[in-house]
Amino acid sequence: MTPERPDARPVADRARYRACLLGEQPAEVLDQTDRERLVLALHALGWTDEQIAAHTRMTSYTTARIRTRIGLAPRRPKASTT
Hints:
This protein has 82 residues and is mainly α. It is built from four helices and no strands.
């Protein structure tokens, strides 16, 4: 059985989700589905696990575990061109 995509369900608490998306609150204030949705949204912007972890105040381990659970491939940091 394939897990339901986190973006297929409505956000449980829009105000908290928005605050987490903006980096104003840690992701731990969200329920599991909204944390998954948050990782999905930031991953879609091209962020690495480390960037997502720092922004959401989760560990990179937790971020990677969520990313893997929802079926996303890891992103590699872009090489510096300076």
